[in-house]
Amino acid sequence: MGIEFLVTSFIVTASPGTGVLYTLATGLSRGFRASIVAAFGCTLGIVPHMAATIMGLAALLHTSALAFQIFKYAGVAYLLYVAWSTLRESGTLKVETEGEEHSAAKVTVTAVLINILNPKLTIFFLAFLPQFVSTDEAHPVPRMLELSAVFMLMTFVIFVGYGLLAAAVRDHVISRPRVLTWMRRTFAGAFVALGAKLAFTNI
Q1: Residue 95 falls within a domain, yes or no?
Q2: pTM of the model
Q3: Which of 3, 94, 159, 160 has the most crowded Cβ, counting Cβ within 10 A?
Q4: Does residue 129 lie in a domain region?
C-alpha cells in the first residue's frame, strides 16, 4: 500500500461533502456521541458502493444512463429532504440537551442513506480502486477489500474528528439562538447545493 493511496484517500475523505456536513450538523446539535454514530453510519454507507465496485455492478451505472439517472435523482431528492428537515426545528439541527434521548438508529439510517444514495461514490470507487491494484495481482479481490477497509477506517477517523470539532463549539451555538438559526440555514443551503451539484452530474 503506497503513500499515494493514503494521500489520495485523505484528500477525498477530508474534503467537505454530504457525510462531513451531516456529521458536523449532528455534532453541533446532539453532541460528540451522536456525531460518532453519524460518522459510523456514513462509513457504513460506503460498503454498498465498495461491494458494487468489486462485484462489477458499478459498470451498470457507468454504462446505463437510465440506471444512473434513477439512482442520481433518488439521491438528489433525499438531499433536498435533509435540507428541508434541517430548516425545521425538529430537523437535523435540532439542539438537544444531554438528558434527552435520541434514536441512534435514526441518526445511523440517515447517515447511511446519505452515502448510499450518491452514485458518484460508486463511480469514484470504480475509477479509484483499480489504480492501486496491479494488473498482475494474483488475488485482486482481497487486495481491493484491503484498500477499501483502509479507506473506510480513514473516513471514520476523519469524520469523528469533524464531530469532535463540532461538539467542542456546541455550547456556544446553544447559547446563541441567532447563530443556530444562521447555521441551520447554512447547512440547509449546503445540502441543496450538493443536491444541485449531483443533479448536474453525468456519467
Answers
A1: no
A2: 0.75
A3: 159
A4: yes
3-state secondary structure the chain: CCHHHHHHHHHHHHCCCHHHHHHHHHHHHHCHHHHHHHHHHHHHCHHHHHHHHHHCCHHHHHHCHHHHHHHHHHHHHHHHHHHHHHHCCCCCCCCCCCCCCCCHHHHHHHHHHHHHCCHHHHHHHHHHHHHHCCCCCCCHHHHHHHHHHHHHHHHHHHHHHHHHHHHHCHHHHHCCHHHHHHHHHHHHHHHHHHHHHHHCCCC
User: Mind listing the pLDDT tens digit of every residue in the chain (203 residues)?
Assistant: 678 888 888 888 887 788 888 998 888 888 888 999 999 999 999 998 888 877 776 566 666 777 667 767 877 887 787 778 767 754 555 555 444 445 788 889 989 998 888 777 777 777 777 777 776 767 777 888 888 899 999 999 999 999 999 888 887 776 676 766 777 777 778 778 877 877 776 65
- Structural domain of 139: 20-85+100-199
What grid cell was written down for 185?
Answer: 440555514
**∠ CA(35), CA(41), CA(46), 5° rounding?**
135
Residue carrying the nine cell digits 482481497: 142
Q: Does residue 181 lie in a domain region?
A: yes
Kindly state whether residue 123 falls inside one of the protein's structural domains.
Answer: yes
- Does residue 116 contact residue 48 with C-beta atoms inside 8 Å? yes
